[in-house]
Design brief:
The chain has 372 residues and is α/β, with parallel strands linked by helices. The protein has 16 helices and 10 strands. It has 2 domains: 165 residues, D-Maltodextrin-Binding Protein, domain 2; 147 residues, D-Maltodextrin-Binding Protein, domain 2. Helix 3 links the parallel strand 1 and strand 2. Bound molecules: pentane-1,5-diamine.
Length: 372
């Protein structure tokens, strides 16, 4: 009796093992590779927490709470100050960032370097809310890798109760010790942006790769230094609001946001022109499938009309989201700082990748930073 029970157990165990082996075999010998992929995708659960690597003060933190309430996914924010800093992080092999916000020309570079994951549009149905002109941007046709987040311009913010509206970039590049803003002005801590200001002032293409022109721009930036309090991309608008500085090279919406603290802050694009840009929500190629799904859900959430409008109302940048734009108040849509009028727009340049010259820009920028 006992022996037969023992044999029966051994037999059951053998049967169970064969069954397991059979199952495993079936799974590996799946008839169509496509089915396996679908099965795998269906099994992916979104990560419970993702890191959003963003420019500072660029999203209403309430968006995180609303997203978490809806999906259970927590978003943690970390900040970078320039496209080059973001690129260096990714090239250095950092992992853990699920959503990043590179500008136009940097999207180009990142696609070329294989640093971005392709978006699964099935997970981002709200992409349909984008205005037509943002569905086919030259740096990423068809939104294959990124979704435009916000757009704006780069110009000069100033305290209108303490100085006249600056008409020209000469307020920075021809420093005058008698000017009230001398030593109380800042420029962006950003190679491409600061070189663009100098090149535009000199009448050159802000995307030039000509070494002579770039050296001239370097000399001009060095010449401006005695009139500067420093280079700053994160707190320049707060220093204006506090009355510590009078003039700053910076991004349109940041100055509008700081108007909430000091109504005398104003913004202008000097007569020589300035920079126009669009920042984009993208997913680094290094993400896990779980992070990618959560990242796509977050991007889809941002593309909801009410959330898009909320973000623009917070950061004062224009939205590429047509459905969100409909929800924004008239005075926002008529604000010339947010939407530059045609004659100003004609003087704005997008930054473009400069290929090999990128290293030259960085080297000359290092020289500017190191100069007295
Ligand atoms: C927000 C910075 C705007 C990003 N503080 C400039 N591309």
């Amino acid at each position: 009796m006992r022996t037969s029970i023992r044999w029966a157990l051994v037999l059951m165990l053998l049967l169970a093992l064969t069954a397991c082996g059979g199952q495993g075999g079936e799974a590996t010998q799946a008839p169509a590779a496509e089915d396996t992929t679908q099965e795998a995708t269906a099994e992916v659960q979104p990560a419970k927490e993702i890191v959003f690597y963003n420019w500072s003060e660029y999203i209403d933190p309430e968006v995180y709470d609303l997203f978490e309430k809806e999906t259970g996914i927590k978003v943690v924010e970390d900040n970078f100050s320039s496209n080059e800093e973001l690129l260096a992080k990714l090239k250095g092999g950092v992992t853990g960032y699920a959503v990043i916000v590179p500008s136009d020309y940097m999207v180009n570079i990142m696609i070329q370097e294989g640093l971005l994951a392709e978006l699964d549009h099935d997970n981002i149905p709200n992409i349909k809310n984008l205005a037509e002109e943002w569905r086919n941007v030259p740096f990423d046709p068809g939104n294959k890798y990124c979704v435009p987040y916000q757009w704006g311009t780069t110009g000069l913010g100033y305290l209108s109760d303490q100085m006249d509206e600056p008409q020209t970039w000469a307020v920075l590049f021809k420093p005058n010790p008698d000017a009230p803003w001398y030593g109380r002005a800042t420029m962006l801590d950003d190679a491409r942006e600061s070189f663009a200001a100098a090149l535009i002032y000199l009448g050159y293409d802000p995307n030039t790769t000509d070494e002579g022109q770039l050296k001239e721009a370097r000399d001009l930036l060095i010449q401006a230094k005695p009139g500067l309090a420093g280079y700053d991309s994160d707190t320049y608008e707060d220093l204006l609001a506090a009355g510590e500085n009078l003039l700053a090279h910076g991004w349109s919406g940041d100055f509008l946001m700081a108007q909430e603290d000091n109504e005398n802050i104003a913004y202008t694009i000097p007569q020589e022109g300035g920079v126009i840009w669009v920042d984009n929500l993208c997913i680094p190629a290094s993400v896990t499938p779980e992070e990618k799904l959560a990242a796509e859900m977050f991007i889809n959430f941002i593309l909801r009309p009410d959330i898009g409008a909320k973000i623009s109302e917070y950061n004062y940048y224009a939205t590429p989201n047509a459905a969100a734009e409909k929800l924004l108040p008239e005075d926002f849509l008529n604000d010339p700082t947010v939407y530059p009028p045609e004659e100003v727009r004609a003087k704005l340049h997008f930054l473009k990748p400069v290929g090999e010259a990128e290293a030259l820009y960085q080297r000359l920028w290092d020289e500017v930073k190191a100069a007295p």
